[in-house]
Every structure is written in structure tokens, then in C-alpha cells.
Specification:
This protein is globular. A hairpin with a 2-residue loop joins strand 25 and strand 26. Helices cover 20% and strands 30% of the residues. It is α/β, with parallel strands linked by helices. Among the domains are: 146 residues; 54 residues, no CATH class; 61 residues, no CATH class.
Amino acid sequence: MNQETKTCQNCKQEFTIEPDDFAFYKKMDTPPPTFCPDCREQRRLAFRNERALYKRKCDLCGKEVVSRVSSDAPYQMYCQKCWWSDTWDPLEYGKDYDFSKPFFEQFKELLQKTPHIALLNFNTVNSEWVNQETDVKNCYLEVGGHFNEDSAYNTYLLHGKDCFDNYWVMHSELCYECINCERCYRTIFSRDCFNCRNVTLSFNCRNCSDVFGCAGLRNKRYYIFNKPYSKEEYEKFIKENPITSHENLKKIEEKAQEVRLSIPHRDRFVVKSTHVSGNRILESKNTHNCWSVENMENVKNFYIALQMKDSYDGSSIAWGELVYENAHSGGVYNTKFSAFNFGAGGSSGVQEKNTSYLEYCHTAPGSNYCFGCVNLKKQEYCILNKKYSKEEYEVLIPKIKEHMNTMPYIDSKGRTYAYGEFFPSEFSPYGYNETAAMDFYPLTKKEALEKGYLWSDYEQEIHHEFSDYKIPDDIKDVKDDVLKKVLKDEVTDKAYRLIPMELQFYRRMGIPIPRRSPLQRHKDRIAKLLPRKLFDGKCQCAGEQSDSKVYMNTSKNHQPHEPSEHCPNTFKTPYSSNKPEIVYCEQCYQAEIS
């Protein structure tokens, strides 16, 4: 088919469907979407509650546990032990399909009736407050990570140990306030660093050790603000400029920021990849409109994903093939319009069964060939949680899809949901402000309600009286009694406390006590990320220097232009024209930084 321009029924903006897109929809036997890519992702994220965790009682055993679902929500909640047990049967909630009312109305009834699992995590040890994590030990308030130990407040930490307050960090140890770093040791307040050791307040450094406030270095040691020093001079500087002091740290951060803005930035972060568009793409091919992804092939419209093939439209998803409009899942095959599905592991976390051929399923681990099921475990050939024979299932499914088109669901804002749409956002078990959608599509309560999202005003009755305590400027002056204090966030005035392993970490690393709560620190890190949007850009290499005259080029090997000429290259980049960074095309960047 030819390229086609459509108008998003949600934001009313135009979006384009390419011939390759139509080929994929035909392969998946689905109609083209009626929401644009951004609105589709926002809708998926509105179902992902990462950090709004509550203490409430399990509706089966009565034990108080940590839960994603607040006690005022119209949903049953079972603790993990009860949810995975045989003491209840999801099939008992099964119902015959009713052709007299829209499919989504029947799905919503099942969503509200069946018990939801308190938290999604597997194989955890002493890690009561982690969500959507597997194989972790001694961790606290972690989200989306795997194989971690003695860590807290991280988002997408994989294979981490003794790490705190990081975003998208892998195979690292003793890292603090890092973003997009891999294979780092004792690295703090740094971004986009790889294979680094003893690095502080640095940006885009590789194979470096003992560098402080640096940017764009390769294979360097004993550098301060991008200048070389002897080992003795470096150690003297560290001793005379301690970051144990909160006030001193703020001053040094300003200088490090000046250094970061003084070097060229690459137009996009794309490594070992071909035919790709988006940003932060590693080892991928034929990957388009994708952000923070690795090992992807023949995919489009993915946001935070690993090892996906021949798939479209996914958020926080990994290890899948032939997947369309899926979210917060892993180990899925040929699955459409679904969320929270993964290879079933039960309480042991060991994958016992794959998950495949699901449509419109919300939390159906280890299930295959199911349609419209909710909170189902290791089943096959089910529709609305009712079991069928293979033959009955195959006869009924085409009739249901036809019925979804002839009697579509109309939501509160007049949007039409026929076969081929993800769950209506008004079905989410969470308020918009409880979900990851607020990270990338922030809305006020008024804006969210006007757009048809839910909003949660629930607050547990926890009364905090702030301690009459002033956090010492230097970590050296902080005593153990801080663990008993209720601290006040300097931005939101919300209460927060320190946990013992957190205080031990600050002392070990020689860094001051944070003046902001874990949630606010997460928001601060999100604010540092580049937008999930590409702008028209032009290389700022003006021959011997940058356009701004801030950076003087060191190499004469700038292709495709002569050393004295301005680079003619244009590109798509997440850096908008009003950003302060110096942005070079890939060729000019590699000539200067590699």
C-alpha cells in the first residue's frame, strides 16, 4: 500500500503510516492504528505504576503487604504468595461472551472483579519494596531492574551492586546519581560513561579512571576539568575539594557543567546499529522511532526495550517477537494489545512456561492462546477467563473480533475502541499521577481529567511531624541519629527518611546527605534526559571551531569538508535549537572525541 496520512483521534494531530507499516499490520492481521505513536505510548504508560506503593492488607490472607494498588481502588489485591497459590482459581471468574454489549465493557468488569497481584517481582530476597524486578537481594524502592544486590532508588538497573539513585545503569558497582552508564565502578554524578573507574561529575567518558569534572575523554587518567595532572596533583585536588560538603559540591557541579557544555555532543547516541532512527540505540538494525533500546531488529515505536524482533509499539518490554501494542512484559511471542505478560515463574522466579498468542490480556503469565483475560495463570484457550476447547476457541475468536468492529466501545471522551486498539486509558487501575506517564507526558490534574485519564487523590493516613533537625553540610558530621529523623524535601516539602544501608553508602562514598526525597530525585534525573523527539539539526562544526567559538577543533580530519570550511551535514537530533550543547554530526564528532 501507499503511504497514508491519518489524524489521531486523541490529539487530533496528523501522523503517517508507511508502506512497511501496512505490511506489518497485514502480517499481524490487525487494522492500522487510529492513535498516533506518542498517544499510543502515553496510553500504555498510563497502565504502569512504578513508584506509588502502599501498605494494605491482602484480600485473601489478611496480611499487610506492599502493593501497587491503593486500598481505595475498586480492585481486589492478593499478596504474591496468595496470588500464585492454588487457593483461588482465576477461571472461577470466567464468563460467557455477551454479544449484546461491547467487548471492552465486559473486559472492564473482569478487570475490576479478578484479584490483582500486589507487586510484580520474582526471586527476591529481603526486597519487599521493589516493583517489576527479578533476581534481586537486599534492594529497596527499585523499578524495572534485574540481578541487583544491596541497592536502592534505581530505575532500570541491571547487574548492579551497591548502587543508589541511578537511571539505566548496567553491570556496575558503587554508582550514585548516574544516567546511561555501563560497566562502571565507583562512578558518581555522571552521565553516558562506559568502562570507567573512580569517576566523578563527568560526562561521556570511556575507559577512564580517576577523572573529575571531565567530558568527552577517552582512555585517560588523572584529569580534572579536562586537564591532565600528575597522580600527586590529582590526589591533592581531591583532598582540598571534598564533595563530602553539600555546599562545596554545588559549586563544583557548576564548573563540571561548564566543561560538559564546552565539548561537542554527538547528534544522536547510536552505536553498532544500521538503518535506525531515535536515540540511545545499541546493536540494532532496521529500528525506527526507538528510544533507549538494545539488540533490536525490524522494529518500530519502542521505548525502553531489549531484544525485540519483528515487532511494533512497545514500552518497557524485552525478549519478544511478533509483538504489537504491548507493555511492561517479557518473554512473549505473537502477542497483541496486552500488558504485564511474561514467562511464568511462580514464586520461584524460574520460567516454567512461555507466553504466546495473547490478545487483550492483562497479567496472564505463562498463558497461551487467550483473549480478553485478566489475572490468569498458565492457561490455554481462554476467553474472558473461561476455558474452551481448541476448536471452540478458534471458532469464537473471529466472531468476537467482528463484533468489536460492529459494536465498538465509546469512551468518556467520544473516542472509538474497535478491534485494533489498546485498552482505554480510563480502564487503568491507577491514577495518571501514579503512573510512568507522568515522567514523559506530565499533566496537571485538570489536564489529565480533561483528556479522559483517571487521577488519584488517595493518601494513606500517615502523619509526619518533621524533626527539628538540620542536615549537616558535611557527611562527616552526620550521626546515626539521622536515621530516626523525618526530613523535609527542599522542593516539595514532603517527608522522607534515610534507611541504614543508604547512610552507610553515603559515608563510604564520601557524599553528602540528599536534601530531596527519592521521588524528587527520580524526577530530577528524568528532567536531565533528552526528549523522545527528533528535531532538524545542522552540524555546528565551523571548520577550525564550533559555531559558538566555545570549542576549538583539534583534528583536521573532518569529512566531508575541508578543515577551514563549515560542515554541510544536517541530521535529526534530540537536541533542539535552543539547547546550549554544541552538536556535531557523527563524522565531526568522531574526529574530535573518539
